[in-house]
Amino acid sequence: MKLNELTAHELLDLLKAKKTTPREIRDAVLAGIARTDGQVKAYVRLRSKASGEQEPSGDVSMPIPIGIKDNICVTGEPTTCCSRILEGFKPPYDATVIQKLKGSGAQIIGSTNMDEFAFGSSTENSCYGPTRNPWDRDRVPGGSSGGSAAAVAGHEAIWALGSDTGGSIRQPASFCGVVGLKPTYGRVSRYGLIAFASSLDQIGPITKDVEDSALLLGIIAGYDERDSTSADLPVPDYTKALVNDVKGLKIGIPGEYFVEGIDPQVREAIDVAINVLETRGATFHEISLPHTGYATATYYIVATAEASSNLARYDGVQYGLRRQPLDTRKTPLIDMYEETRDAGLGSEAKRRIMLGTYSLSSGYYDDYYLKGLKVRTLIKQDFDKAFLKLDAIVTPTAPTTAFKIGEKSDDPLSMYLSDIYTISANLSGIPAISIPCGFSRDRLPIGLQILAKPFDEAMLFRVAYAYEQSTPWHKERAPV
After folding, report:
1. pLDDT at position 60, please?
2. Beta strands 107-112 and 43-46: pairing type?
3. What whole-number distance in Å separates Cα of residue 149 and Cα of residue 161?
4. Helices 371-386 and 295-310 sit at what angle, rounded to 10 degrees?
5. Which residues contact 225 (CB under 8 A, 6 or more apart)?
6. Blockwise average pLDDT, block size 10, the chain, 480 residues
7. What is the per-residue pLDDT for 53?
């Protein structure tokens, strides 16, 4: 097996045994990109070597190549959120997660493709064009972190970082047959993550297996005084949770997640996964999360309102695209704003800005945004109540397998429903992980979602690892 097809922990073992070098690993990943990315298009750019940057050596703890979603700032490297409006923007600082990765010796390979400003579930809404699923290149990889998931599944990265606002790590992980983790809100610093919806966004790992996910979260997690929402809590050694034992754990199955609309093949795979954990000693309990039916509407009020506020800063004045020169003697300032935003933003970004601006507008704020916040509280209380008696909850990650490119482009509502099983974790702030749990008859991956109480990522890893070690799915490789 080629080096780029191995997991990070397998490569670390080889490095410790002096059977390979960081440079050989990087060269293998770059060779994989050269072979594959012309078809998959997981990357929008490869990283230029920074001035004075040292070649990777054997005296760093984690010299593993990593792909970075194009909304996470890297000093001096273009960071555009795959939007024309940030054309030419090069951050003067590193995101906190990038600082932590550099401190560990990680090799940043490049920026991965994404839906513009993370607005989407398919990675079709990118100014660089769509990314394709390594399992079937006529299908989407999911989104908005589709480039990161496709890079890992297609052996173009050993692991990657994504961001998750309503499922943008977990849904593409499900579609691409890899592991995707959304940590608890506040567990990983958002400093240097270009905001979509500030109360929902969270950076997290996309990896080939659960052990790698535990390793990568251990690197990027921790308190950051530059992020006012960062939680000042100790970060455990997550690898100690990989004990391959779920005996006695109480796991909930919410009835609201197993209703009409779920693909029968997805339902069957989840049922089999539940049986696997049950045979390992976990007990399952049917539960109700009664406000689940309001989650999608609540999410698309809260998220679009925050997006409208966050994207107001992109007007052509300070950075990025400027469609007309700032000369009010020739053209009014408002004209420059309008021309810049019209040319720089794609159709989905405009749609979400308009939806959010409407729900925040005078006369509608109380009816929409304020009510959405109240329902969000009810959704969180559903989980709080459930976790008083449970250790974890399992659901499908997505209601279907990966759909074809263009299939939902003209139906935004259908596209929004792709995240129906993932958005509640963001609204409530709890951690959630998607792991491979089988394939459809068309050999398309299916994901199992596991949820736990706030800051109990260790429980996610415990359940996910026990399931993974009992099944072969994490060993499957996309046919690229």
Report:
1. 59
2. antiparallel
3. 9
4. 130
5. none
6. 95 97 97 97 85 48 95 97 96 97 96 98 97 98 98 98 98 98 98 98 98 98 98 97 97 94 96 98 98 96 97 91 72 86 95 95 89 97 98 98 94 85 98 98 98 98 98 92
7. 46
CA distances for 299 relative to 33, 169, 293, 305, 456, angstroms: 36, 16, 11, 10, 23
Q: Which amino acid is at 143?
A: G
Two tokens, residue 199: 């109360």
Sheet of 43-46: strand order equals 43-46, 107-112, 65-69, 159-163, 203-207, 179-182, 432-439, 445-451, 392-396, 250-254, 283-287
Sorted by sequence, the CB contacts under 8 Å of residue 251 that are 6+ apart come out as 277, 282, 283, 284, 285, 390, 391, 392, 393, 394, 463
* Domains of the chain, start order: 3-251+388-475 (3.90.1300.10)
Q: Quick one: angle between helices 457-469 and 264-279, nearest 10?
A: 90
Q: How far apart are CA 107 and CA 47, in angstroms?
A: 10
3-state secondary structure 239-288: HHHCCCCCCCCEEEEEHHHCCCCCCHHHHHHHHHHHHHHHHCCCEEEEEC
| pLDDT at site 49 | 61
Beta strands 107-112 and 159-163: pairing type?
Answer: unpaired
Distance from chain centroid for Cα 266: 21
DSSP 3-state percent helix, strand, coil across the chain (nearest 5): 40, 15, 45
Cα 392 from Cα 399, distance rounded (Å): 20
Q: For residues 55 and 462, give the distance between their C-alpha atoms in angstroms, rounded to a whole number.
A: 36
What are the beta bridge partners of residue 179?
A: 207
| Helix axis angle, 8-16 to 210-220, nearest 10° | 80
Beta carbons within 8 Å of 347's beta carbon, 6+ residues apart: 125
The reported pLDDT for the residue numbered 51 is: 36
Query: pTM for this one?
Result: 0.95
Element (H, E) at 46: strand 43-46
Q: Contact 436/447 with Cβ under 8 angstroms?
A: yes
- For residue 328, the model assigns a pLDDT of 60
Would you state the pLDDT for residue 329? 66
Contacts of 39 (CB under 8 A, 6+ apart): 132, 137, 480
pLDDT of residue 364: 87
Residues annotated as part of the active site: 69, 144, 168
